[in-house]
Write a structure and sequence with these properties.
Elements: H1 6-10, H2 14-24, H3 30-42, E1 63-64, H4 72-90, E2 96-100, E3 103-107, H5 113-123, E4 129-133, E5 147-148, H6 150-158, E6 161-167, E7 172-173, H7 176-186, E8 189-193
Parallel strand pairs: 4-6, 5-7, 6-8
Antiparallel strand pairs: 1-8, 2-3, 2-4
Amino acid sequence: MYTPWRIIRLWPDLRMINFWYRTVRSDKRDDSILLSVIDEFARDGMTFESALDYCPELLVKEGVHTKRAPSAAELKDVEFGWALAKEMGRLDVGQSVAVKERAVLAVEAIEGTDRCIERAGVLCRAGGWILVKVAKPQQDMRFDVPTVGLSTIENLHNARARVLAIEANKTIVIDQPQVVELANRYGITIIAMPDAA
């Protein structure tokens, strides 16, 4: 979206150029762009539905999913990070916040969760930090649903994280049994919590 010469490199058709400058030009937040794309397809009679209507089993259930539960101090960090992550989601900035001892290490923005994790690992060489990943308060479940998988756990391990806190019934965990197994092997706690709000 921000590469030099993007019009020439991407070579959009007239409809896309019109859509971009008519609809998206003034508001480039994730939700705004994706909702505008959905509206554009709706002009041709197409509708979008959530994949979760067809495979709700992908959503993680509430509870501690790993052998190790978070400590009391880690739970305090989760609570602290949860409020921040929800506010970041409300502002349509990102869905993840990295925290240690109630200090924010990294906030997810346009770069995505993996880069947020990487940055937190660089800033906290001692490790032992937590990542909170939640749904936006206004989450449209047709797109951009919070998702974690094996690569998330690998990245958390490489960045020396200790806990992954996700939102129950609003986060997709791809290959959940394998994710839990890998987290257990690395000593990373996974906890899925309901939204307190």
